[in-house]
Design goal:
It is built from seven helices and seven strands; from the N terminus they run ααβαββαααββαββ. By secondary structure, it is α+β, with helices and mostly antiparallel strands. It has one domain (2-226). The strands form two sheets. A five-stranded mixed sheet has the order 1-3-2-7-4. Strands 5-6 form a two-stranded antiparallel ribbon. A hairpin with a 5-residue loop joins strand 2 (81-86) and strand 3.
């Protein structure tokens, strides 16, 4: 995991360059391989690594729903689930539910990519007649969508290239099912959030950064939201 962190840090330092694209693809592939190798290790007698846990990721500042959308995309791509609640101090907390190693990967990526996304969105300049906020939210939707897409592709590739593709696939599907079950157990009043409508003006820019860090699309469903949140 330390090697993955270093790759993300180096990619961030040269964001927007062909070198960043190469570094990010390498980081995504390593991250996926890490998850698959760990899943295969859990096909043995030691089941302690299969513990399902919850990581609380606090979201603050501007564009909180868009930050939540990114975390939810990461969670879904890495066999976890996310439920969000609004706190009294004007922040949100995303409860990331899943097998410990997957949750750790989501938490690491959320920390690395949220700042990249917000900084890139702040640099966006919309076309005449389009508000900056609308354009930036569109950009971040594209960013989150593409990050999730690329991570899902990396996970599938890592499974296919593993020494036991069938076994790894079974374990990872089980991980996602267990995350679903644990989310329902811990958050029985959670409901799926409504789909957010966003403009199209920044989608492609977000997707292009997604090639450098992320890409995107028209709507992003986001994670579940706790009743009363």
């Amino acid at each position: 995991m330390d090697r993955v962190r270093k790759l993300f840090a180096k990619a961030e330092s040269v964001a927007g360059t062909p070198e960043a694209d190469v570094l990010l693809e390498r980081a995504y592939a390593l991250l996926a391989k890490y998850g698959v190798d760990e899943a295969l290790a859990r096909t043995g007698p030691d089941t302690t690594a299969a513990e399902v846990t919850v990581l609380d990721h606090v979201v603050s500042g501007s564009y909180q729903p868009d930050q939540v959308g990114l975390v939810a995309a990461l969670a879904s791509a890495m066999h976890c689930r996310a439920v969000t609640a609004v706190r009294g101090d004007n922040t949100r907390v995303v409860h990331i539910v899943g097998v410990r190693r997957h949750v750790e990967r989501v938490g690491m990526l959320a920390g690395a990519l949220t700042g990249v996304m917000l900084a890139a969105a702040a640099r966006q300049r919309p076309a005449p007649g389009v508000s900056a906020v609308t354009h930036r939210k569109s950009f971040m939707t594209g960013f989150a969508f593409e990050v999730g897409r690329r991570l899902e592709a990396a996970e599938r590739g890592a499974v296919a290239e593993s020494r036991d593709a069938a076994g790894a696939g079974i374990v990872l599907r089980s991980d996602a099912q267990r995350a679903d079950a644990e989310l329902r157990r811990r958050f029985p009043t959670a409901v799926r959030g409504s789909r957010r409508r966003v403009g199209m003006s920044g989608i492609e820019e977000g997707r292009r950064l997604g090639g450098s860090v992320d890409l995107g699309q028209r709507r992003f469903a986001g994670g579940r939201r706790q009743l009363g949140a």
